[in-house]
Amino acid sequence: MRKYKVSIARAEESSSGVTKALLNLNEIQAEITKCRQVLIKPNFVSTRVRLSATPIEAVRAAMDYLSKIYRGTFIIAEGPALGELRDGIERFRYTELLEYYDIELIDLNKDDGEDFLIWDSSLNRSVKIKVAKTILESDCIVSIVRPKTHDTVVVTLTIKNIVMGAVQRGYKSSVHQGYKGINVNLAYLATYMMPRLAIIDGYEGMQGNGPIGGYPATLGVSLAGLNALSVDAMCARLMGFNPLDIGYLYYLHRLKLGSIDIEDIEITGLTDWMKYVKKFVPHRSYREQLNWRLPPHMEERILEEILEEVKNR
User: Fold this and answer.
1) How far is it, in rounded angstroms, from Cα 121 to Cα 93?
2) Does the CA dihedral 116-89-214-276 come out positive or negative?
3) At what angle are helices 228-238 and 158-166 packed, to 10 degrees?
4) Half-sphere exposure of residue 36: CA atoms within 13 angstroms, side-chain side
5) What pLDDT score was predicted for residue 313?
6) Which pLDDT belongs to residue 214?
């Protein structure tokens, strides 16, 4: 049976944790050398709230590592939910990266968009949204985030970072079709844009009323892996949550885009990872968020529809 490798490393600061987690993954070099262009997707939910954004130190550490393998122009792409990308680039000091690396900066909210039909709150596929083509056409997405609690889907990690950043402004709220609908929509859209490399800087995350209104939580470890679903599942465990309680992770597991089952995951680095589990304080609506499950017949119908679409691409 295939094992999905997840690297976990101590994080005394953002940069050191990310670097150590990447160094534990020898497979990255072979994967990155296949890429036409490396797209790095940080997370700026709000361009004004520091704790909602991926620290520059984590992105710099990732780019330092990747630049030894990849010699081309990097893309840094993001589509903030609140605020303008340029403001976030300046406020969070990403201008320092622009001065040092060969970078093309892309605002996904202003990118060419492709139409998608997603599910409404009644689980009918009737909602039209636009998704940034730059993400859809990228052959090498690197998602790098903080671990954060969320107001609708328990946690937001590397997969949700890509999906909601790619959904363009004016359509992001349309993905939020109640607890049932949003989890189906995130899983469906993720089948089009799974990261090739997933990195979580856990030096300082957000707990409580995330993804914007929470407060600091020190996880103290960073994670990296070539399967974003397994990386996100391990981070959820380290945050004190059960991946089976997170709807979109569960659906992606059912769709076989990786695994959330601990038996399918090979931990490298901190093999005694259970000692580092922290109990993040969840969002105040956490109990309500767990009401995402569908009746079995409806779950099977929707997953079969998504699988059929995946097969026919």
Assistant:
1) 39
2) positive
3) 120
4) 3
5) 86
6) 98
Contact indicator for 112, 75 with CB cutoff of 8 Å:
no
* Residue 70 tokens, joined: 């990849």
In Å, the largest CA–CA distance within the chain is 54
Contacts of 145 (CB under 8 A, 6+ apart): 42, 43, 54, 156, 157, 158, 161, 199, 200, 201
For the chain, give percent helix, strand, coil, nearest 5: 40, 20, 40
- Residue 83: name the closest of 217, 212, 190 by CA: 212
Quote the pTM value. Answer: 0.98
- Sequence-separated (6 or more) residues with CB below 8 Å from residue 35: 70, 139, 140, 196
On the question of pLDDT at 6 being above 90, the answer is: yes
At 37, the pLDDT band (50, 70, 90 cuts) reads very high
Which domains, from first to last, does the chain contain?
Answer: 4-311 (3.40.50.11440)
- When the pLDDT of each residue in the chain is averaged and rounded to a whole number, the result is 97
What is the CB-side half-sphere exposure of residue 38 using CA atoms within 13 A? 30
Is the preceding peptide bond at 211 cis, omega within 30 degrees of 0?
A: yes
| Residue 237 reports pLDDT greater than 90 | yes
**CB contact at 8 A, 127 and 174:** yes
> What is the per-residue pLDDT across 75-115, written as a single tens digit (0 to 9) for each?
999 999 999 999 999 999 999 999 999 999 999 999 999 99
Question: pLDDT per residue over 59-70, tens digit each?
Answer: 999 999 999 999
Residues 6+ apart with CB under 8 A from 164: 81, 156, 172, 175, 186
Q: Which of these, 179, 175, 120, 174, lies nearest to 152 by C-alpha position?
A: 179
Sheet containing strand 103-107, strands side by side: 103-107, 74-78, 39-41, 141-145, 197-200, 221-225, 4-10, 265-269
